[in-house]
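Bug report (template v2)

What were you trying to do?
Predict the complex of my protein with zinc ion.

What happened?
Run completed; filing so the output is reviewed.

Input:
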Amino acid sequence: MCHSRAAAEQVKASLTAWLEPRGLRFNEDKTRIVHVEDGFSFLGFDIRRRVDRQGSGKLLITPSKESVKRFRKRLTADVRSMHGANAAAVVFRLNPVIRGWSAYYRSVVSGRVFTGLDHHVWHLTYRWARRSHPNKSRGWVATRYFGKFHKSRQDRWVFGDRDSGAYLTKFAWTKIVRHVPVHGGASPDDPALAEYWTERRRKKKAPPVDEHTARLLRSQGGRCPACGEFLLHAEHEPRSPREWEQWFMTVRRVLAKQHIVEQVDGQDRTFYRLLHAHCRRQILAGKAVHQP
Ligand SMILES: [Zn+2]
């Protein structure tokens, strides 16, 4: 095939753009030359090149079928292990798992993959709820555990805990960030293009936290109002769904949201701010927070 070499170069350039922010690079000795039209799997991604009628190729990167299958099994096992626990514990356990996977794949996934996983989780949690209450009706179970827990979404099938208001996040709620296709033959090895790649790396995606947290982070310039330090630290972007999962668990542990009510001209004004959980604890204990 006359275009196969150019196609291979295009694939390599695109993949390098993918790998670099993840701190990975091609090992030339181990790089297999394959017909990319046939596709191949790599780091949990399925990579294939589709040629349109005009003959120009487009690289398609999706979560690999094997990864999706494995992940569905993992979710099944997780929910099954929560038999006997309460709804809040299920939410606490699954949310970082769902967020982690969504974050890793958010730039390559199709809406259909996310929706499919949401259906899967729905079935798992519904079955979990039915098992927890064998003597109750389907209707009772549905009303008890599913509802419009997320205030700004018209979705009455969100799994949640009525007592605490905690609810399960959905894959489909993660915003899909489109991967900017690499221009023609742009190769990261070409020094003239170095700037182009630096620019690409610089345009780091915003952390995939929920919208409210993202808004507060932006308005606070990413800093804790109590100590003045940055609220989130990451040496590099997480490089796997598991690392993302860990990252979300850390975020949950270190960030605290504070609800503040202020009197302005005799009127109650209410707002939120983000603090380090340990700074918040110090404030609650009546201790001064050290400003650097
Ligand atoms: Zn702080």
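What did the reviewer find?
Residues 111-132 form the longest helix (22 residues). Strands lie at 40-42, 45-51, 57-63, 146-147, 158-159, 255-264, 267-276.
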